[in-house]
Amino acid sequence: MKLINPTRVLLVLAILVVAAIGYFGFGSARMHWLCEQRKAAFDARVEQLKHDSASKLGVGANKERVVRFFQQNGIIPSFEKFHDNNFARGSIVVHGMKDCGYLVCDSDAAVIGVEIEVDAAGAVTAPPRVITTYTDCF
After folding, report:
1. pTM to 2 decimals?
2. How far apart are CA 28 and CA 25, in angstroms?
3. What region does 48 belong to: left with phi over 0, alpha with psi -120 to 50, or beta?
4. Can you tell me the distance from the alpha carbon of 96 to that of 92, in angstroms, rounded to the nearest whole number?
């Protein structure tokens, strides 16, 4: 009867441990890297909207320019009255943010909202605001 060589057993176990650490370690690093890319893209989109809305929708810009701005950015505008103020609003939902570990969320969605105060005819009366939030977070 042949006995199992303890050196071989230790060598096989060591190889398995190193392989498992490498697999899970690189997987975690890859997930972190992908999250950082998504977060950077999200932040860049927010900054681009802030820049574009400020440069293209100054006070006095007419309703057609407001609608065009929203359409060019893939946002469906809605014109609403709240108390005595009129607003043009729209938002974009971005998915894939949950696993990035910034907040404890039940959803993977983040929202970029654009809000522009307008007059009754739809002309801009105040600088646009770009607002971000995560959904279902606590």
Report:
1. 0.70
2. 5
3. alpha
4. 13
- The tokens of 70 are what? 């929203």
Q: What is the pLDDT along the chain (138 residues), one digit of tens a residue?
A: 566 777 877 888 888 877 776 666 555 666 677 778 888 888 899 999 999 999 999 999 999 999 999 999 999 999 999 999 999 999 998 877 655 655 555 567 788 999 999 999 999 999 999 998 877 655
Q: What's the first-to-final CA gap in the chain, in angstroms?
A: 63
Percentages helix, strand, coil for the chain, rounded to the nearest 5? Answer: 45, 25, 30
**Calpha distance 87→114 (Å, rounded):** 10
Q: For residues 30 and 36, give the distance between their C-alpha atoms in angstroms, rounded to a whole number.
A: 10
